[in-house]
Protein 1
Amino acid sequence: MSKRKLDEKDEPTPTAAPQPTSNGASEVSFADLGLDARLVQAVAKQNYEKPTLVQRTAIPLALDGKDVLARAKTGSGKTAAYVLPLLHFILSRKKMDPTSFTSALILVPTRELADQVFKVVEQLSAFCAKDVQAAKLTDKVSDAVQRSILSNNPDIVISTPARVWKCIESSALSVDRLTHLVLDEADLVLSYGYDEDLQNVAKSIPKGVQAMLMSATLTAEVGTLKSVFCRNPKVLDLQERDAEGEGVRQFVVKCGEDEKFLLVYVIIKLQLIKGKCIIFVADVDRCYRLKLFFEQFGIRSCILNSELPVNSRIHVVEEFNKNVYDIIIASDENEVLGDEDQPADDVPNGNVSEAIVQGDNGERMTEKDDAHQDVRAKKKRKTVKRDREYGVSRGIDFRNVACVLNFDLPTSAKSYTHRIGRTARAGQTGMALSFCVPKELYRKHTPTSVETAENDEKVLARIIKQQAKQGKEVKPWNFDMKQVEAFRYRMNDALRAVTKVAIREARTRELRQELLKSEKLKRHFEENPSEMHNLIRHDGELRVARTQAHLKHVPEYLLPKEGKKSLTSGDIGFVPFRKEGKKTRGHKKGKSRGRPFKVGGRKGDPLRTFKARRKTK
Ligand code: AMP
């Protein structure tokens, strides 16, 4: 638990008046912002030392009653930037009128984000929990339960536009006395096709509601939203120096399709990258191909994709954030299937007259939990029916990610920025490594080929150009292929075991297992919300492919004499995110946790010894 930064009287330490600095207001403290003392105390409990740029800019405007449209990304502290003013207003009003009614509505594009926002509301209202009730409408509960939650008149309602509109329409929720509206990830809300729901919500809320829009980009569509919800808003086009991806060292490796598997094996097994890693792949099948491939080498990993039940997804992210898992293989279909190849240059302030945005209405899977879907029926459909409320490379708050590995390059430069933004958050360092398949090597190894790779070089050129505009460089990561070649035989051996049939079976089996886990999680969560973790693991072996025990350790003779650093040239790898020798939480003696053991030594891996294996039986 984090230590509270309070004085001896258990009160937040008052801060001196803001000190002017070279860059303006960086010495401003939370207390200086004029927030309710209980909120300042909660902020201190969260160990937020100083407000971030979006917080110190947006909060005073919001407290002043202004509508705000802020360009703010996940990782910038945007959630607290709108939650704190909302809480402040509710607390101020309750001093005069203690009745409860829904005065604030927070709209988000995904259930995962709704969950995160709800948590932030809980954390920041820790010292005034009696006075502020919040409800999220995104949980899969019956209409009756939903109604009863809403009948308590929660002060703050967090929802996706579709769900909230359903509740407004059915009169389960009254927004007659709404005073504040937040649209978080506004650009994503639109790309998820919530336009009609938003129009409906806009029509049903009272005039003069104070609006705050948070958006990673200020596109034309966001400009349209602005005109629908805001009156003369203050537009904050903030460019935070330590925002998303700022401290990311970026590397690219040009390689053949099967070499991706070779390199990822070497990188992970020999720990060329240290710390937690998100591996992005092109689609759901690819997740399982890579997971099964890793399994051959005794490397554990979790999968995150839109097909999995939402409870499982949330749980995976939570556990990953607690360092229980080290590798997540994510398919970000919303990005990878590519509906967002817009120009990189955004339109600030957007004086736009288009009607609220496109979006395919037909296919949206609102809150219907994908829990009861049949995989086979799904597969028959040409276009995968994906959960439109799922998004990995944006929105979700992954903590302490040392490396984002673009196993399959995304299809746009924008998508790349979102992905690499999952690492190097809050001033930390991190690295992004991308595999890029040159045109001449595309389709040269059919079993490992993926369609999106056809344009890898074009996309990479756009990525490099866009990063250069921000003064960042994408450097080549040169592997000494001769040294890496030594591992090719093992890679081929493992790849052969990962057949199409095995992948299909793994996908079906994992979904089935996750549905069961999801039900368990749900039940347990209902009874014991704070102990949802520790319950279930998501990185178990699928065991559908033929496994070969000998692959699980790396024999000494394969290792370069000069040490593993000689596999690569240049200043790369070894991100000192996690200190050498320091085990991640949850690493218990005798338990495999996905990360390789001491390379080349059976001693280092208790599960690989005869004794240990006997014991586990
Ligand atoms: P967000 O951009 O709202 O998703 O926040 C990203 C992360 O930054 C969350 O884990 C927050 O807990 C953290 N955070 C928010 N505000 C601050 C702050 N002022 N100082 C330090 N961390 C913060």
Note: The mean pLDDT is 74.
Protein 2
Amino acid sequence: MDQNRPARLAAHVEAARLDPGLYLVATPIGTARDITLRALDVLNSADLLAAEDTRTLRHLMDIHGVPLRGRRVLSYHDHNGERARPALMAALAEGASIAYASDAGTPLVADPGYRLALEAAEAGHRVHALPGPSAALAALSLSGLPSDRFLFLGFPPPTETARRAWLGQWIWTDATLILFESPRRINRLLSDLCEIDPNRITVVARELTKKFEEIIRGRAADLAAHPRMGLLKGEIVVLLDRAARPAPGAEQLDERLRELMARLSVKDAAKQASEEFGLPRRDLYQRALDLGRDQNGRADRPDTGETDGR
Ligand code: SAM
């Protein structure tokens, strides 16, 4: 048992009564001592506690010697939000202070709490953020990638088609990209990334603030071939450097494909354009087919000598 515990406990017990409202409490993503002093005060003083996982919050409070003193810990997560919100809203309406914590890190960041915070604010209640750990920002600060502009993308879709379309949508954004991913799917994500931009500097930040914290960094193609990638365990954040060159515009792409198709097969034109622009070959093949169809359609149309009025 921690020798400081009785002193800390006394300090919590004497904490002042909180103003009414919803308190969104960030909690550690690994090291329990990353909790903030204010988070401990609020957990100690709130009239009501709510958590994504009630056992996780009780365990955290236990580690830090924050007593429950008969207070209830309500469950509030993605699957019971609709059912659980009315009780929390009713408590707020009666002037209660509610502390809400997700499993780890900052609530609402790829975690529950958005609807609750929104409804509370719309109903005129005070919503307080208690800033603290977040895997996305911890990873960004360790990644060695530019931090002046970044975009948090959350989890990629799990299926290949959706993931590729999703990557295609965001990959050319002029910002450092931050993604959450499961270690079981990291290989698939890297292989999709290689299809689009194998040279993209990619960082895998693993087990942040924990004993086996690790940063793996390299080109997407290097990481995809990395022998450890398929064996990674724990929690990871993936970060992508911004694109080395801007994404080509649709017109520029079409013009180049037409040039190439004038002397190459559709397949070879798509292959060459894919190499030149660093875009997925299958997307360019599809676009080349569409362009070819358009051109043939126009050529096949009988020339009546009439204009379309423009
Ligand atoms: N709200 C949390 C936050 O602010 O950090 C994120 C919750 S999200 C459901 C969980 C994901 O965050 C994990 O799958 C992983 O991608 C990332 N993550 C959480 N803790 C991490 C850690 N210690 N190291 C690396 N990634 C972590």
Note: The longest strand covers residues 176-181.
